[in-house]
Amino acid sequence: MNQDYIKPDNWSIIEEGFDAERVKSSESLFSIGNGAMGQRANFEETYSGETFQGSYIAGIYYPDKTKVGWWKNGYPKYFAKVLNAPNWIGIDVEINEENLDLNTCTEIKNFRRELNMKEGWYNRSFEATLKNGTEIAVNVRRFLSLDLDETGIIKYEITPLNKDAKIVYKPYIDAGVTNEDANWEEKFWEPLEVKKGTNEAFVTAQTFKTHFKVTTFMHNTIFANGENVNISPSTIDSTTDRVQFTYGTIIAKGQTSAIQKIGGYTVSLNHENTLAAAEKTIKTAVSLGYDALLQNQIDAWSKIWEMSDITIDGDVKAQQGIRFNIFQLNQTYLGKDSRLNIGPKGFTGEKYGGSTYWDTEAYCIPFYMATKDQQVARNLLTYRFNQLDKAIENAKDNLGFKDGAALYPMVTMNGEECHNEWEITHEEIHRNGAIAFAIYNYHRFTGDYSYIPEKGLEVLIGIARFWHQRASFSKDKNQYVILGVTGPNEYENNINNNFYTNYIAKWCIDYAEEQIKKVAAEYPADHKRILEKVNLSATEIQAWKKVANDMYFPFSKELDIYLQQDGFLDKDLVPVKDLDKSQRPINQKWSWDRVLRSPYIKQADVLQCFYFFEDHFSKEELKRNFEFYESFTVHESSLSPCVHSIQAAALDKMDMAYTFYLRTSRLDLDDYNKEVEEGCHITSMAGTWMSIVEGFGGMRVKNDQLHFSPKIPKEWKGYSFKINFRNQILKVSVNHDKTTFTVDGDQDLTIVVNGNPVIASKFVQIN
């Protein structure tokens, strides 16, 4: 744990006291979003201290030219940047002719931030003394509307405490922004048009290269003691990419002045005329008014929490952690648009680029399937189907594959590979397996098979073709091997026969063949259409099966465990417990050469296979492999603690499971990896949800039924969660004495609890 300043609270993230060293971390932690856009918790007023300014729009990106490696054939030509969008939150403030800047105030008292997760708003308040001696109290509330998802609202209130004050508000919108992360220091936005009205303004700009057009807008209203003073700006300053209004007010000591600012974006992804759409959006928001917009926000979040909330009784930090994770997931993606996906930083930062990693299929889909309508998860699968042609192009043009073999990108915005590390881009090919597994997992959980004949089978065929061509036959082993890969453990590059990669390759081929047979039997028209489209023959399928049936898996007879890859036991096997703590995290302290030669594992690798394919292995096999590999795992990936928590719970290692749960749930809140100022780890947050539901709750889907083996950490009095299983809502409540299963509605649901069939109805209690 690196920091411990967030106050424990069941429903809010709270910071008390101003500390300039924490500003960038808090900008990440207090970020807000609504699925369509989001922003870091930057101050609205000027701040001359260290800050990471960031606002982001879903689906808007820039192809930043790759800085290294372009001499290698097949190397991605660009790294897709999550774009820092035009700034609409800015409000410069002058008080008695001095600029308000917390970095220069002589005193700051009662500084407090709150991110209210229950109601979906962010609040900041403080008292400050300026250099001119004026003392003020400030309260700022901001939220991004879930209902009007192109709209955000700021209410900025100032109360002079020791004298009357002339307060000047200077709200602005600015498209002249740059990215914190840019390869060539290029500008990404080209200004097109500025339009100014009485109290509203618009800046339309488009991205270079990708030509996304965005209209950034604002509408301002000035209040005194809660009453609209109906004033217009005294001056309007504008350039080709910026508009700033000036409003001068006089307010008496103890009275409250306020500016209410409505702002946001309309984008060409959704509108042919973004300016007209922005004008309409302002009109709608103004007609509703602040109070109605806030109440609608509260109501919208109430509906989300009704289904997705997890309650924990007796452990406030654990409760705060899971709600923070669920809140950020819902801020990032709500499933409304199949063109969008879940970026690893969401709307909280720019690191990693791209909007889609294998994290979506491996970690996020289970959360969205169980807490929302199944259409949301289906949209995520459709996203990949829509990019199948690009995956085939990627395999063909960059790697020389043929005949429709598909390699999905490690990182993408539009289906093209846009990651710029060779050992990840072209070696971490296991992501293909996660995409196929997600199709299987969707059918297993929802019971909806229709996706496979309609779309999924084509994806499975492309992936099977890739694995068939990627494997090579070893005469020495008399088996098929897969060489030159990076497994989930990115602290090993260019290794041979990563167990997880080989295993999921075999599974993908077997699963694709099974689905071809099933579609042929049950959907003959789709079968005929697909096989003709992809030109698939029985002979080719037989060739696939030969690879799958004769796949090599590295194994140690002495230790009776699967080996992470060939040669793993040749390393200096010093367990993590014997590693000097001053050397952690090793990715920040060691050279990359030293990391690669070490036995240390970034995240679940062999154990990722045991997580996906738990039923393929015995509990004894899991125990042996878990105890061996966990001892070398440094958990320097956000995706690591959740898998280990789930498996520790399955092995009745409850203290370990609880420790891993706290680490995954509070990874960002407590900044375990010392990097939260760069943004939060959004996709791994779904793993936190899995740690409770699949770990402590023991939920599995087997033979079309929900199975549970509930357990509870000794630190908790009880916990509860809901599952939307095939359009039936099941609530599970666990304490140390009993587990209660409650089904919404009158239809019973047959479940299996600790191996015993149970008919769950409106109330079923298992002692």
Automatic annotation (TrEMBL):
Residues 323-690 form the Glycoside hydrolase family 65 central catalytic domain. Keywords: Hydrolase. It holds the Pfam family Glyco_hydro_65N. Gene3D superfamilies: 1.50.10.10, Glycoside hydrolase, family 65, N-terminal domain, Maltose phosphorylase, domain 3. Substrate binds at W358, D359, K602, Q603. This is Family 65 glycosyl hydrolase. InterPro entries: 6-hairpin_glycosidase_sf, 6hp_glycosidase-like_sf, Gal_mutarotase_sf_dom, GH65_N, Glyco_hydro_65_C, Glyco_hydro_65_M, Glyco_hydro_65_N, Malt_Pase/Glycosyl_Hdrlase. Residues 699-758 form the Glycoside hydrolase family 65 C-terminal domain. It comes from the Bacteria. GO terms for molecular function: carbohydrate binding; glycosyltransferase activity; hydrolase activity, hydrolyzing O-glycosyl compounds. Belongs to the glycosyl hydrolase 65 family. It comes from Flavobacterium hibernum. GO terms for biological process: carbohydrate metabolic process. Residues 14-268 form the Glycoside hydrolase family 65 N-terminal domain.
